[in-house]
Amino acid sequence: MRFIKFLLLLCFTTTLQAQDYFPKNDGVKQSFKNHVAITNATIYVSSTQKLEKATLLFKEGKILEVGTKVAIPKNATVIDGTGKTIYASFIDIFSEFGIQKPTANQERSSSAQYDSSREGYYWNDHIKTDYNAFENLNYETKSAEKLRAVGFGTVLSHLNDGVIAGTGLLWTLNDEGNNATRVLNNKISQHFTFSRSKFSRQSYPSSLMGSMALIRQVYHDGKWYAQGTSKTKDLALESFNANKNLIQIFNAGDKLNSLRANKIAKEFGVNYLIKGDGNEFEKIKEIKNTGATYIIPLDFPDAYDVSDPYLAQQVSLSDMKFWNQAPFNLKILADNNVPFVLTAYDNKEAKDFLENLRKAVLYGLPKDKAIAALTETPAKLMNQSTTLGSLKKGALANFIIVSGDIFEKDSKIHENWVQGNRNILDKMNVEDIRGDYNLVFNNKSFDLKISGELEKLEAKTSKDSVDYGTKLKYSEPWLNLVIKTNDSIKSGYYRLTGTKTLDYLEGKAVLENGQETTWRATKKEVVEKSEDKKKDDKEEKEPTVPTMVPVTFPNLAYGNEQKPKQETLLFKNATVWTGEKVGILKETDVLIENGKIVRIGKNISATNAKKIDATGKHLTAGIIDEHSHIAISNGVNEGGQNSSAEVTIEDVVNSDDINIYRNLAGGVTSSNLLHGSANPIGGRAAFIKLKWGYSPDEMIVKDAPKYIKFALGENVKQSNWGSGRFPQSRMGVEQVYEDYFTRALEYKKEKASNKNFRYDIEMEVLNEIISKKRFITCHSYVQSEINMLMKLAERYNFKIQTFTHILEGYKLADKMAEHGVGGSTFADWWAYKYEVNDAIPYNAALMQSQGVMVSINSDDAEMSRRLNQEASKAVKYGNVSEEVAWNFVTLNPAKLLQVDNKVGSIKVGKDADVVLWSDNPLSIYAKAEKTIIDGTIFYDLEKETTTLEVIQKQRSELINTLIEAKNKGLKTQAPKKKEVKHYHCDTVEEF
């Protein structure tokens, strides 16, 4: 139906141009198809081919010839392009121009929508593969005019809405045509985002990791559906499969999201054009290694108004740095040979695009790369090189005529021709009448000064230092002046009309009494400026390029100037807490080499090692936080379904989270990043080492055993949340597990017997649990539920690996030990909700006494900075030894996570993840002086003073630069505080 509507739109759009075979019922049918030649111009045929004093010849919207010796046919329209420069019109490959937006969903409901609202389509409303932009067109003349004014002639339009947002079309900004002539390709691209549709209330996905899992499942389902074994019709999957051969464009945004989009691309053998966010330079090595082509916005941040010292404190150093660094992004991409095109999509005003383009060139982007990114490269990506992106023979007559070099500040785009149709933006060869004149009329002499921009002239008339109010209107060749008389009693005006002749302005004047006379304005001689004055003016006009603030790893406060590197380290005379049977060793040396602990003993020497005097200090294994939610991007819970086994935290590790650095300062070297507790079956975990300044992939410990988060209790039944989602009771939680594991076994049978089975990520993960290849960490409080889950696991022949929180663990520690499950608990958190009322601080010691493997975790970005003190509470509450208490945050969590063969204690052959403390690590006075991971120092207290001085110096310098920018009249924005989200188990948000 929508396709029929599009055909009708093409047929009945009433415009000046119609297709040749259409009848003409509103007048005679004549066609004016003359040749047009623009002569004597500088022409950029391509980004690298430049012709001087050349001619561009075209007819009927197509270029016939371009060169310095073009024969111009008789009767051709000739336009003199002397002094002008011609470029191919720009192409924006990422636009929503002319797309009619759907009506927002007005339905209000307190309960969430869990199922799709459409029948015959995919199970998720945010998959809109069947949406076609060409069926929803509304050509906007004013918007087209704004885009043409900054050089664009062609755009790829789509609706940027939904996880898979449907298809886009390629069309021109040709006001004189209709959609039959504008549309070059009605279905050229398929679009992806990480964001939900604004027009659907369906709950899933509610997180970034949920969006990634959904996209993956669509790829799997599309492959399965193409086999023809589906029992039902799915129009969305049919569209998805049909659109696979189109250009695949992914609106990723942030640099880390770009890497995430590329991760999906590699997994499924797809090449995405990835739209970035302008911060690619911060991860340039990783961005380059993707091998992808990027769509880069030119939306630089305005300077912050930091004139108020108190408000200035709200602006983070990272935001100040980004203001300075952002205009260098394209230069850095070009220097690293990262292919890119440009878009005006993120610019609030189209006019800002050209200003920022010129700024990027000023900051080092080569001009030929800039031209290519707006012409040849997008044309090539869309397989349109024969018609777009250059001024070669046969191409569309899409070009702009500029007063000079388009990258110069004062250059003006005079005309933008689209498909051979002329759009005049700023008249060419306008007579410049600016200057100082001696104006004479009615036997009176005045001083007349005409100034301003050519398209917006201003006039000032004065006599004997008295100003006469003057209004000027100039439309070449006619000039109109209205001058207010100097009569204090009554208002009167002189009205002058005339033209320019040589150095004169002259014409007829009508006096205030209605009498007519003549007037003449003679241009005064211009006093030649001195050479020094000329030099000063030139220096004033030439913009300066500021020094780029160095990029750090990561690019925020406390980032490293260089990525930390592995060293050979020798600790001398330390008190070594081994965590092993040998216990605590006094005055002992430890040698670290190639990221491993290679020797422990006395009087060790190593000539190539960096020696660290540890006399009076304590060396321990790094703290391991078994339950953490730091370093996660855009959602810790995928709460849109009661099971989210398909999602994984590994997809959303945030290497730029400042809490990584803060944890390092607290002696933490590894964290187990867990999904939240919104669902009975949550998402998969990510075990990371806190390698501050490294990429997410470099932080993830890839060979560590794999875990998943389950949850019991109030959070998952959601009966107090008003969600209406199953389950609503603790009994229902058990049935969720029974249902999913039963289905998983059925899926396993289907997979074994049917080669055309539907690959289900969620079922694959659950079968990993049954097969003991993935292990459960379960959020838990109440003993009855804890007992239930152990019995359920035993029925399916696996065991729970860890109960986390487990605040009633002391009540059934014997049963836990019998099952073989560990307990990862809080030291003394209780009474923060009803189901923890029975919690006691002796819990850890009591479970440990019954043979349960016990660890103490944080579940909190702040608590994780002082887990050493949390461990010490077990000495007070339970009277465990200091060594046992210390193992609660080192060796024991390593055992629960099954990585104790590598970390958790100081033993020869293990990873060199160690911390040097100023005092007994259980003391409240102890400070982590050095935190080392794989033999690399990631935190050094000794250097922190210097780091703070550098931060203060950078802030001061940037604040001065920002104030200077404001004083120069540049646009500013109010200071904004950047909030750092702290996730907890129950944090639920919409991404």
Labels describing this entry:
single chain, 991 residues, alpha/beta, 9-stranded antiparallel sheet, 8-stranded mixed sheet, 26 helices, 26% helix, 26% strand, disordered N terminus
Cα gyration radius (Å): 36 Å
Terminal Cα span: 33 Å
**What percentage of amino acids are in beta strands?**
25-35%
Low-confidence stretches: 1-18, 28-32
Describe the structure.
The chain is an alpha/beta fold. The protein is built from 26 helices and 43 strands. The strands form 7 sheets. A 9-stranded antiparallel beta sheet has the order 20-19-18-17-25-24-23-22-21, with no helix packed on it. Helix 9 (317-325) crosses helix 26 (941-967). It is elongated.
Summarize the structure.
The protein is an alpha/beta fold and 991 residues long.
Topology of this protein?
Layout: H1 2-12, E1 36-44, E2 50-59, E3 62-67, E4 77-80, E5 85-88, E6 90-95, H2 141-149, E7 152-157, E8 164-172, H3 179-182, E9 183-193, H4 208-226, H5 235-242, E10 247-251, H6 255-268, E11 272-275, H7 284-290, E12 293-297, E13 303-304, H8 309-312, H9 317-325, H10 329-335, E14 340-343, H11 351-362, H12 367-374, H13 376-381, E15 399-402, E16 413-417, E17 435-441, E18 444-453, E19 456-463, E20 466-468, E21 470-475, E22 478-484, E23 493-501, E24 504-510, E25 516-523, H14 531-541, E26 569-577, E27 584-593, E28 596-601, E29 610-613, E30 618-621, E31 623-628, H15 658-665, E32 668-673, E33 681-684, E34 686-689, H16 696-699, E35 706-711, H17 714-717, H18 730-753, H19 761-770, E36 774-780, H20 783-795, E37 802-805, H21 813-819, E38 822-825, H22 843-849, E39 854-856, H23 867-876, H24 882-887, H25 891-896, E40 914-917, E41 928-933, E42 936-940, H26 941-967, E43 972-973
Parallel strand pairs: 1-4, 1-5, 6-7, 9-10, 10-11, 11-12, 12-14, 13-43, 26-29, 26-30, 31-32, 35-36, 36-37, 37-38, 38-39
Antiparallel strand pairs: 1-2, 2-3, 5-15, 7-8, 8-9, 15-16, 17-18, 17-25, 18-19, 19-20, 21-22, 22-23, 23-24, 24-25, 26-27, 27-28, 30-40, 32-34, 33-35, 40-41, 41-42
Helix pairs in contact: 4-5, 4-6, 9-26, 18-19, 18-20
